[in-house]
Amino acid sequence: MKNNEYDVIIVGGGITGAGTARDCAMRGLRVLLVERYDIATGATGRNHGLLHSGARYAVTDQESANECIRENMILRRIASHCVDETDGFFITLPEDDLNYQTKFFESCLSAGIHAEIMDPKEALRMEPSINPDIIGAVKVPDGSVDPFRLCAANMLDAKLHGAQVLLYSEVTGFIKDGDRIVGIKTFNHQTHKTGEYYANITVNAAGIWGHHIAELAGVNIDMVPAKGALLIFAHRVNGIVINRCRKPSNADILVPGDTVCIIGTTSTKIPFDKCDTVTVTPDEVNLLIEEGAKLAPALASTRILRAFAGVRPLVAADSNDSRNISRGIVCLDHEKREGLKGFISITGGKLTTYRLMAEMATDLVCEKLSVNKPCETANAPLPGSDGKSFREVAQKIWDNPTTGQKAAAGRLGTGVTNIPAASSLDQSLICECEQVSVGEINSAIERWDVNGLRDLRRRTRVGMGPCQGELCSCRAAGLLAKAHGCTDRARADLQRFMTERWKGMYPIGWGDALREAEYTQWIYKHVLGV
Amino acid sequence: MKPQEHTASAHNFEECMKCTICTAYCPVVPVNPRYPGPKQAGPDGERLRLKDPYFFNQALKYCLNCKRCEVVCPSGVNVADIIQSARIKYGKEQPKLRDWMLANTDFMGHLARPFAPIVNGVTGLGVTKTVLDATLAIDKHRTFPKYSYKSFEGWLKRRSKEQAKFEKQVAYYHGCYVNYNNPQLGRDFVKVMNALGYGVQLLDHEKCCGVALIANGMSQKATKNAVHNVKALQKAVDAGLKVLTTSSTCTMTIREEYPGLLQVDNSGVRDSILLATRFIWQLLESGQAQLKFKKDYHARIAYHIPCHLEKLGWGIFSTELLKMIPGVEFTLLDSNCCGISGTYGFKKENYEASQAIGKPLFDQIKSVNPDFVACDCETCKWQLEMSTDYAVKHPITILAEALEY
Predict the structure, then answer these.
(1) Contacts 24+ apart (CB under 8 A), A377-380
(2) By residue range, what is the domain housing residue A132?
(3) CATH code of the domain covering residue A194
C-alpha cells in the first residue's frame, strides 16, 4: 500500500471534521484529514461557544433539542477541560409574552431538558447582571464550550489514534473512477505544492464550504450561507448564560466564555462568494449592543473587545427566512442520493452536536467499508479531560499554583503536565492577559501543528485578551522565529497577525478599544518598526 | 446616555491600556519576585477573578498599597484599589494574632498608654524583640513606636475652654499616632494654629481611620470605623468647620479609601478634610494670616514625600511651607517609597523587601547629610529613623520650632 492511500479522507478541519477523524480513527480506519487553512477557521471558531442545552430549539424542533441535551451531557464528561458548566437562564422581559414561558417550559421537559421556573428575584440574585425588569426566568443546563480547544483536542486524539492531518491543504478536485470518488487533489498554501491522496470514502465536512466541495465532486447540496455577527466584551459580565425566552431572534444570547462574554447573533443570508470575507456592519454592531443591553444592561457601558462574524452551514428549505431552516443534522449518502459512490456529506447541526454528527458520518463510512466496530466517542474522554474542574486539576498537580498555572490547567486540563516548566524562562509569560507561558507556547508549537501566530492564538488564547496582541504577539513571534529558524517569516507573520487583530477591532473602533489600538500601533510602527 | 457613549468598570480596570508603567514604578516588583506586579495583580488579574474566584492569588498580600501605580497610571485606573478590593473580596486567610495586634492601633494604644514607661522599656529590649520575632513574626530589627503616658485627647480637652476663645475655629483629626505615640506633634499643631489665630477642637470621638485594618484583612471593622468617622466628621462640617489632619495616610484613607474600597460614602465631608500644611500654606500664600519666625533659625532639611501624600497630590504644600521658613536650606529627596508602608515592614516575611525598597532613599539621605529629615508620615519616620542615623520631624513640628514665641 502506498503512503498516500487511506480508508477514509475527511475534508474540513472544523469541529465536524475533527470529530469524524477521531471517530474513524478510533474504529481502526486509516484516516487522512485535509483542511484548507487551520483548524477551527470557519464556523467552528466563529460562534458563541454556547453548549446548548437544547432549550432554544425545544419549542420549534424537539428532535434537535433532544440531540442537544444528550450531547451536552456527554461533552461535560468527555471534554471537561473545554466545558464550563455555567447553566443558563431564559428570561422574559416586560415586552415579551409571559405565556411563551409556559409553552417553552413544557417543551423543554418533553425534550428531556431539566428546566426549572425561577422566581425572577432568585434569578437576579444568582446572576446580578440580568436586566432587573425581568418578569420571568427559567433555568436550563446551558454551558459554555471553547470551540478551539474542543477542535484541537479532537484533532490531537485522532492523531493519537493514527490519523494524519494536513493543514493548509485545499481540495482542488476529485479523482474519479467511473461513478466512484477514489481520491482528492490538493494544493498546499504554504509549500505551493499539489498532492493526490486516495481513499475508498471521502467525507465532506467542510461546513458552508461543503457546498463548493460537493460541486467539485459533481453533486449539489443546496446550502444557504447565513452570516451571524457577534461582539466580544472584554470581561465576563455574566457568569451564567442569558437567553431571551421568546421565538429565537437577533442578539438574544449572552454567553460567558473563558475570560470574556459574547453577545449574538444576527442572521443574514449572504452570497457564497462572500463567505471568505464576511465583515460586521455598523448596523449589526448597533443592533447587538441595543438588544444585548436588554438582556444585561451593563453591556451598554462595558468595553467591547472586538466584533466578528461566522457563516452557518444551513441546508436549504423552501422558506426565505434563514432562522426557519432546519438546524438539524444532515448526513447525505451521495451514492443513494445521486449515485455517486464513495462520497458522504455531513453538515447542518451545531457545535454542541458535533460528536453525534461525527458518529452518524462514521457509522455510514463503516457500513460502506463493512467495518463492524461500535462508536466509543461518547465514553472515551478527550486528551486533557478527566471529568474534573480545572481547579481540581491544578490542586492535584501543584501545592500552590501560580495564576499562570491555573490558567494553563483551565486550557489544557490534565494535559497541562506536558508543558515544560523546569526553568524560569519556561514559566515566564508571553501573554499576560490570558497568562500563557513560554513553556505552553513552545509545547503548542511542537505538538499542535502551529504554523504562525494565528494558529497559535487558536490553541493557546495568545492575543485574545484586552491588549489584542499588543504585548504578546511580538514575544510569541520571537519564539516562532526560533522554532522555525526564520525571522523574516516571523516578521511577516507578525504583520498579518496584527492586521487580523485590527480587523476585529475596526467595527468597534471607539473609546478604550481605539486607545488601545492606537497605543499598539505606536509600539509596533514607531518603536519596533514593524 | 447613548449605549457605549461611556464605558465604566470597577476601579476603571477595563481602561488599562497594558502600558505596564505601573509595574515599572512599583517598588515591590524589583525586590520580591513572588509579587506579580500591579498590572497583573490588578487589571489583568481582575478579568481572571471575574471568570473564577479561584484565580485569586495570595501573592497580592505583597502589595504595599503605596498607590504609586495609581499616581503614574495614564489611564486613571485605580490599580491599588483593584488589588485591595480583591483581597477584601476573595482573601480567605484569617488575620494572625500578630496582624490583629498591628492592625488595631487604637486598641493597642489604649491598652499600652497607661503603662507607657514599662511598655516602652520592655519593647525596646533586645530580648523582647527576639521573642516577638520568634513568636509573632514581628521582625527583630524593628523598634516599636514609643507609647506616650498621656494621650493627646486628654491634653486638648483640658485646654478646650482656652481654645474656644479663638474667633476662628478648626477641627483636628489627630489619628492614633498623635494620640498614643506622639502627642507633641498635636501640641505643635495647636501652637501653630493658635499663632495663625485659630482655635482647635476635637471631633466628637474620632476612631482609627482603619488603614491598618484594611491592610491586615479586617475590612469589616475598618468599615465600622469609617461609618463612625464620617458621622463625626459630618458633625464638624455641618458646624462650618474645616477638619485638619497631620497624618498623610489617615487623610488619604478617609478621602480615598472610604468610598473606593469600603464603599462608605464620604461625599459630604471629603472636601473639608485637609492636610494641615495645605490649609496653612493657603492661609499664608493668600495673605489671610502671617507667622513670625525666629530670626536666628537655621536648619538644613531634606524632605521625603510619603507615597500616600504623592497620591493626594499635596506634597507641594508641605515643601513650599518649609521653604517659607527663613533660614531653611531645603533639599527635596527623590520620590522613593521608604519601604515600610505602615504595618507591612513590621512583618518578618517583609523585612528584607522593605529595606531593599527603601535603600536608595537611605543612601540619598546619607549623601545629603541634612540636620534632619522632614516627612508628613509617621511610619516613614519610623523606617527612616531605624534605617539611617537621622531624626525625622513633621513639617508642623518644624514650623512650631521655628516660630518666634
Answers:
(1) A377/A19, A377/A22, A377/A23, A377/A26, A377/A78, A378/A74, A378/A78, A379/A77, A379/A78, A380/A26, A380/A78
(2) 83-143+224-315
(3) 3.50.50.60
Query: In chain B, which residues fall in CATH 3.40.50?
Result: 292-402
Enter the C-alpha cell of residue B64: 504595599
Residues of A in Cβ contact (< 8 Å) with B12: none
The pLDDT score that the predictor gives to residue A317 is 56
Q: In this structure, is residue A292 part of a structural domain?
A: yes
A519:B48 CB<8 A? no
**Chain A contact set for B10 (CB, 8 A):** none
pLDDT, tens only, A320-368: 445 545 558 999 999 999 999 999 999 999 999 999 999 999 999 999 9
The structural architecture, per CATH, of the domain B10-90 is: Orthogonal Bundle (1.10)
Q: Which residue of A has its CA nearest to B14?
A: A303
Chain B interface residues facing chain A, Cβ-Cβ under 8 Å?
A: 1, 3-4, 6-9, 13-20, 36, 39-40, 44-48, 50-52, 54-55, 57-58, 75
Between CA A428 and CA A437, with CA A433 as vertex, the angle to 5 degrees is 25
The answer to whether domain B292-402 has CATH 3.40.50 is yes
Grid cell of B161 as nine digits = 475652654
Residue A392 lies in a domain: no
Task: Name the region of A461 (left: φ>0; alpha: ψ -120 to 50; beta: rest).
Answer: left
If asked whether residues A277 and A340 sit together in one domain, one would say: no
Which ipTM did the prediction report? Answer: 0.93
CATH of residue A105's domain is 3.30.9.10
Residue of A nearest to B54 (CA): A391
DSSP E strand boundaries for A281-323: 304-315
In sequence order, what are the beta bridge partners of B170?
A: B200
Residue recorded with cell 484613607? B253
Q: How far apart are CA B273 and CA B251, in angstroms?
A: 7
**Spatial distance between the Cα atoms of A255 and A296, rounded to a whole number of angstroms:** 11
Examine the domain organization and report whether A332 and A311 are in the same domain.
Answer: no
Interface contacts (A, B; CB < 8 Å): 92
Do A15 and A109 fall into the same domain?
A: no
User: Which of A107-116, A324-333, B209-218, B345-354 shows the lowest mean pLDDT across its residues?
Assistant: A324-333
Average pLDDT of the residues in A68-72: 98
**pLDDT tens digit sequence for B271-315:** 999 999 999 999 999 999 999 999 999 999 999 999 999 999 999
- Identify all chain B residues contacting A258, using CB atoms and an 8 Å cutoff: 51
* Nearest CB to A511 within list B4, B19, B20: B4
Domain boundaries B152-283, corresponding CATH code: 1.20.1050.140
Query: Which part of chain B is CATH 1.10.1060.10?
Result: 10-90
Measure B89 CA to nearest chain A CA, in Å.
16
Q: How far apart are CA B207 and CA B227, in angstroms?
A: 10
Residue A398 belongs to a domain: no
Could you tell me which residues of chain A have a Cβ less than 8 Å from any Cβ in chain B? 234-236, 256, 258-259, 289-290, 293, 299-304, 390-391, 394, 400, 402-403, 406-407, 410, 432-433, 435, 465-467, 470-471, 510-512, 515-516, 519
Number of independent structural domains in chain A: 3
Q: Could you tell me the three cell numbers for A223?
A: 446550502
Whether residue A289 sits in one domain with residue A199: no
Residues B51, A234: C-beta atoms closer than 8 Å? no
Candidates A431, A433, A437, A519, partner chain B, best to mutate (most B CBs within 10 A): A433
Q: Does some domain include residue A259? A: yes
pLDDT in tens, B175-217: 999 999 999 999 999 999 999 999 999 999 999 999 999 998 8
Taking CA atoms, what residue in B is nearest to A472?
B18
Which of A235, A290, A464, A470 best tests the B interface by mutation, with the highest count of B CBs <10 A? Answer: A235
Measured between CA atoms, how close is B4 to chain A, in angstroms? 5
